[in-house]
Amino acid sequence: MSPYLTSLASEEGEKIAKGLRHVAQHLDADPTSLSTSLDPFTITTSTGFMPLHTPIVDLPKAFDALTKILEEMPIVKEDGTPGLLATYQLGPTIDYGALPDLLPKIEELQTVDGKPDLALATAAFRDYAFLASAYLLEPCWERWSKGLEGYGLGRAVLPRCIAGPLVKTAKLLDIPPFMSYAAAYTLYNYRFANQSTGASDYSNLRLVRAFERGLDPTSSEAGFVLTHVDMVKHSGSLVKGATQLLDAAASNAGAESTNDAFDLLLDTMRVVEESMESMWSHSKPKDYLSYRTFIFGITNQSMFPEGVIYEGENGGKPMSFRGESGANDSMIPLLDGLLQIPMPTNPLTEILKDFRSYRPKPHREFLAAVREQAEEVGVREHCCRDVDTTVRYLRLLEHVRSFRWRHWLFAREYIIRRSTHPTATGGSPIVTWLPNQLQAVMKLMTSTWEGIPAEQRSEVSKDVVEMMENVVDQRDKLQKEVDRWCQERGQ
């Protein structure tokens, strides 16, 4: 490369680095040095998509009434006795005035320098989101637990004492005012049995809030949530590897820098998938549908045909939000954007795009920047210039495929075989939505493999050839399976 072109490439790499750091200004910071006035999901290369600090468990004393109701709420409480949901008494408890309107107290959640304390705001959002979902869906739980057909109708009005603080904290965090994956159900819903051990050992993880039996760390509800936490704790290396790969592509770096980035991403995804596989033992498929009742959303759900009125909000007009979903995690969307995986233009992909707004603001901005900059520098083209790097690109796509395939297996074994309800918790079609993204990555893998000259394909290792044979086989197998499920379910 000429000195002039080298200079241009260097300038472009610097521009990309600055672009990422414009939306992730603390990328290289020590999380312990960062203020709680920042969004807890501010991204660093050490915490990745996890919170900067261990989630806050206890709200200030002013919120004791809220805390007491949440402790009494689970079907089985921490001491093993039945809670309010066990006897369908949560709604009446709220309706009879047990929870005061604590909206003015949200304003008092400030740091010492008078800024909104977003770590405390997130803890309050989590707690009010749990209470809102339990209140709205308690009638559906009662119907399900009594063995009646279908979920029936949820409550159509969220009381002011829940709606006001939930909307206020959501506005502070710039997220929808409903149960979310990151800021409520999962990534801000863990604590440690032993603080010094931290997240290094799965057995040290505990839930803060639960609906069913999740305060028992051996329960399937705890396993479902905490396995996600155990997976995402590795995401810092994905963030670091993604920035390295973008830098390499932008500066037109040689194979060594590109391959180093790939090797970090590949090593990390191997660990993430090992953790993901432990879901089968941590959370039993037969148990899922019971606590799943409480994580449905409003959008596209038969339980809320007219939406939900949040008292005192939106001029009294009903609102509708998607429910909690592991699909709102940010790790695979990061790789989707980084590797430039094209999604088909159809309504299923529009749902995928809609999910973006349910992630924490720092996640949304970072993922958008990665997508835009991967397109700008041509990551896919950069990674397919020689066979060795193309194989690494294919191996990372394989991890995306494998992750999504396992997610499909979870959906099939935990839900599709056990429920006729047509939509997932997030409001997407339960049978066709995951295969939409899975087919997209397999299609890209096939075209990338076919782009390698035949004489060079014959020189790659046997496991890569077998990997691609498996992709072809699974594309056909998946389509037949989806068609069969759709036919059986009349969808």
Automatic annotation (TrEMBL):
Record-listed E.C. numbers: 1.13.11.52
Signal peptide positions (record): none
Transmembrane regions: none
Enzyme class: oxidoreductase
Listed InterPro entries: Indolamine_dOase, Trp/Indoleamine_2_3_dOase-like
Role noted for this protein: Produces N-formyl-kynurenine through the oxidation of tryptophan.
Record protein name field: Indoleamine 2,3-dioxygenase
